[in-house]
Amino acid sequence: MSKVAVVTGASQGIGAGLVTAYRKLGHRVVAVSRSMPESDDPEVLAIRADLSEAGRGVEVVEQALARFGRIDTLVNNAGIFVAKPFTEYTAEDYDAVTGINLRAFFDVSRGAVAAMVEQGGGHVVTVSTTLVDHALAAVPSALASLTKGGLNAVTKALAIEYAARNVRVNSVALGIIRTPMHAPETYDYLAGLHPVGRLGEIDEVVDAILFLEHNRFVTGEILHVDGGQSAGH
């Protein structure tokens, strides 16, 4: 039976790259995004959903299981990043960032892990940020650290909680990746934030996630894909 991967934030950028990569591996894919277009591929279930809304993540898992019968991999890629001074964040910023970064993770992962335990194993990967480990004065991003730092912590907690049940849990902590999230006119400045002097590319993130997918002895890992940013400047 073909394996099934659920990818959130799948309509563009890293998420779209992951959908393509998992299909090349022969996985059936559940692709989720607020702006997810329909797919012509019968092995791709495209779901348009705002995962910040209570219960939507639960529905996504239910639809995935109804269509394909199992979930082997979940990539929690959906996320939102708002960079501004801490005292300028609003209640609306807090709700938006925690809704996508935390509620989406909680609702989808809870159901997916339950399915993985029942079927005998699986893998959860969450996209985080290297700013959790290496804060930059030039990029004030307390809400990213608040939420993604929690995701790094729960990655380790769940890896240990479910290790004996053959469910692996890992994260990738990213530097700044060349995606539609960033305007092209900012690329030179953003590249300078990495010791290697360039932006990361989508395929480099996809490769890192596929490494975690294939190496079954890796769990509880926060894999930095950040051009050396977490090591220092």
TrEMBL record:
Query: Which SUPFAM superfamilies does its entry note?
Result: NAD(P)-binding Rossmann-fold domains
User: Does the UniProt entry include the keyword Oxidoreductase?
Assistant: yes
Signal peptide residues are none
Keyword terms: Oxidoreductase
Q: Please state the Enzyme Commission number of this protein.
A: 1.1.1.-
One MF annotation (Gene Ontology) recorded for this entry: oxidoreductase activity
Say if the entry is tagged with keyword Transport.
Answer: no
Q: Which family does it belong to?
A: Belongs to the short-chain dehydrogenases/reductases (SDR) family.
Q: What is this protein called?
A: SDR family NAD(P)-dependent oxidoreductase
The scientific name of the source species is Kutzneria chonburiensis
